[in-house]
Amino acid sequence: MSSADVAAVVAELSAGPKSIIDAKIGKIYQPTNEEIRINLYVFHKGRDNLVVEAGKRIHLSKYIRPSPKLPQAFPMLLRKYIMGGRIVSIEQHDFDRIVKIGIERGGIRSTLIVELFARGNVLIVDSENRIILPMNPVTLKDRRLRSGEIYELPEAQLNPLEARVSDLMEAFSRSTADIVRTIATKFNLGGVLAEEVCARAGIDKSKPSKEATEEDASRLCNAMHELFSPLLRAKTESGVGAGIPELRPQHVKKEINGKLETFDVLPFDLIHYSGYEKEYFDSFNTALDEFFGKKALEQVEEVKEAQKKEKTLGVYEIRLLQQEESLKKFEKEIEKNNILAETIYANYQLIEELFSVLNGARAKGYSWDEIRSILKQAKKTVPAAQKITNIDPRIGTITVDLDGKSVNLDIRKTVPQNAQEYYEKVKKFNKKKEGVLKAIEDTKKAMEKKAVAKAAKAGRKLQASRKKHWYDRFRWFVSSDGFLVVGGRDADTNEEIFKKYLEKRDLVFHTQAPGAPLTIIKTGGKEVPESTLREAAQFAVSYSSLWKAGHFSGDCYLVKAEQVTKTPESGEYLRKGAFVIRGERNYFKDVPLGVAIGLELKEGETRVIGGPASAVRKHGDYILEIIPGSFNQNDISKKIYRIYVNELNDPRFVKQIASPDQIAMMIPPGESDLKSQKPEGRERELSPEKNTKPSK
C-alpha cells in the first residue's frame, strides 16, 4: 500500500459506512507470522474483521484465513490488553505508511501501531508511548522496537498534502537524481504516484532535479494538491451519508498470459492508467479486500491442494520433492555466501576504517550504547557511519549495508578473516549439496527400478525404433499436411541450410526481429496449403528471439528461395548467418508464439517431436503445449521428461526416445512454461500403420 492508499483507508475507517470508531474489540488471531485479524463488533452494523499484515495491508475483510489451533504469544498478549476495549481513534501519521489505532478499556488508553513500510511491524504501546510488545522485535541503527523502549517514529518525509514550492526547490537542490525519483522518495509517493504528478504537471520526469525551475516546482506543487484533493476533502467529511464521494476505489486490469487480471488497486483515478480497463467498488476497503484478501485465501486453498496432492504421491516421489527443495536451498546459500564474501573484499578499505574507529572507541572505554549514540549523530556527516544498520554488543558484531547487501561483521577479526567466515559457509553448503545430489540420484534409480518392475508386471512391451535423418541436427517439424519444415539453430546452421539444402522450389520464412531461424518449407514441387504456411510462420516466430524476450506474438514474412541471397549491396558486408532478401515480401502479422512437444509412436519410428501444436497433434501423442514462462530450457526439458516417465511407466523406453537432451532440442531458446501438466491424446498401440512421410 502507498501512503495515499493508507490515507484513503484511514479516512473510510474513521468516518462513514466503513467506520470502526466505537467498535468493540473481540478476539485477536495470528493466521500467519506477519498477519493479525481483529474481531470487531461495530455499533449498529454487527460483526466485522480488521486484517492487518505488517508491511503490506490494513482493511476490513470477509476473506478469513483459518486460525492456528495453538495461538501465538503476540495475539494472546493483545487480547490481554485490548480485548473488550473500544476503538476511539484511527489516524495516519503525517502521510506516512503508519496507522495509529487508539483503544480505551476500563479508562486505560493504549495504541496499536501498524507500520506498512519495508518489512513492517505491529506494536502495542501504552499511554506514555512505551512499547508493551512488538510483533517483530528489531534493533535498527536509529530505532529500537523492543518491549520497554519508547516508541520512536522513523525519520519523517515531506508531506505532499502540505508541500510548498520552497519545499520542492530545497529537495531538488539536494538531489542528484531526476525529478520523478526525487519526489517519489522525498515526498513518500512511490513510483506510480510520482509519475502521475509529473504527468499532471506536464513536467519531463527524467529532467535532472538540479535543473528544475521555480515554475516547475509550482506546477508540481499544484499537481500534488490536485491529485490528493480527494484525501484532503476526506479529512473534513462528517461521516454522514454514503461514504467519501470524491474517492473512486478501483482495480486496474491488463492482459497477463492471455487473461485479463488485476495488477493494481487505487483509491482514485490516475491519468497514468487512463488506457486500462477498470472495475470500480463502493469503498476502498472492499477494493483492497478483493485485491489482497481474496488472493491470500486463494493461496491457502492452493497450499491445501498441494498437501492433498502430496498424499497421493508415492514414498519415492515425496522423498524426491523434499530432496530437490533442499538442493535449491543449499544452492541459494552457496550463491549468497559467495557474494557476501566477495562484497567484503570489494569494500576492504571501508570496513578497515570502520573496524579502526569502533575498536579505538572500545579501547577508550566507550560502551556500545555510547558508540550507537555517536554513530546516530554522525550518520549525516560521516559516510562510513551510514553503512552500519545494527550493532549486537553481546557478540561484538555489526551489520553493515554494503552495495545493497546486509553483511554481518565481527570487529575482533580482520577483513580477510570475516570474508573467510562466509567462504567456510560455502564449503559447508557445498558438502551438503554433494550429499543431497547423491541422495537424489539414489532416489531416481529406485524410482526407475520400481517403474520398470511395474511396467514388466503390466506386460507392457514398448520398443524404441529410431531412424537417422539429415534434418535431425536442425530445428524441424512435419506439417499437418505432411510437408517437412526445417530451421537453423544458430548462424552456422542457418548458413548450412542456405548452402546445402535450400532448393529453388522451396519457400522461406523469417521474422522481422533479428535472431531467428532461417525457416524453409521443402515443397517437393507441390502446392503448399495455407495451413502449412501458418504453421511455418508460427514455427519461425516461436524459435526466434521473440520467445526469449517474453513476447506472445510476432511478425514474419514469406519469400521464395530465389529471393534469398548472400550477395550484399556494393560497399556492404554480411556477417555469418545473415542474408539479403530482394523483392516483395508476404507478411504474416501477430502470429501467436506457441510450441508443442509430443511422442510419435509408430512402427519403425518412435521419437520425440516438436513444433506448432496443430502439426504435433497430427503426428503424435502425449501432447504438451509450451508457452513463454519462467523455466529455463534445461528445467522445462526435465519436467517434460518426468511427465512422460510417469505417463508411460517405462523410464528406459522414454530415455531412449525422449531424454531431457532430446526434448531440449525441441524447446525454444529462453524461458518457458507448460500450459498444462497433463498430456493430451491417448496412448496408441504400436501398429504396422504406415508413417506419414514428409515431402522433401
From TrEMBL:
Coiled-coil parts of chain: 313-340
UniProt keyword annotations, A-Z: Coiled coil, Protein biosynthesis, RNA-binding, rRNA-binding, tRNA-binding
GO terms, molecular function: ribosomal large subunit binding; rRNA binding; tRNA binding
UniProt cross-references to InterPro entries, sorted A to Z: NFACT_RNA-bd (IPR008532), Ribosomal_uS13-like_H2TH (IPR010979), RQC_Subunit_NEMF (IPR051608), RqcH_archaeal (IPR043681)
Residue ranges with Basic and acidic residues bias: 672-696
Domain of life of the native organism: Archaea
Region annotation Disordered: where it falls in the sequence: 666-696
Similarity comment: family membership: Belongs to the NEMF family.
PANTHER family: NUCLEAR EXPORT MEDIATOR FACTOR NEMF, RIBOSOME QUALITY CONTROL COMPLEX SUBUNIT NEMF
Purpose of the protein: Probably part of the ribosome quality control system (RQC). May mediate the addition of alanine residues (Ala tailing) to incompletely synthesized nascent chains from stalled ribosomes, leading to their degradation.
Protein name (Swiss-Prot/TrEMBL): Archaeal Rqc2 homolog aRqcH
Organism: Methanosarcina thermophila (strain ATCC 43570 / DSM 1825 / OCM 12 / VKM B-1830 / TM-1)
UniProt lineage: Archaea, Methanobacteriati, Methanobacteriota, Stenosarchaea group, Methanomicrobia
Gene: rqcH
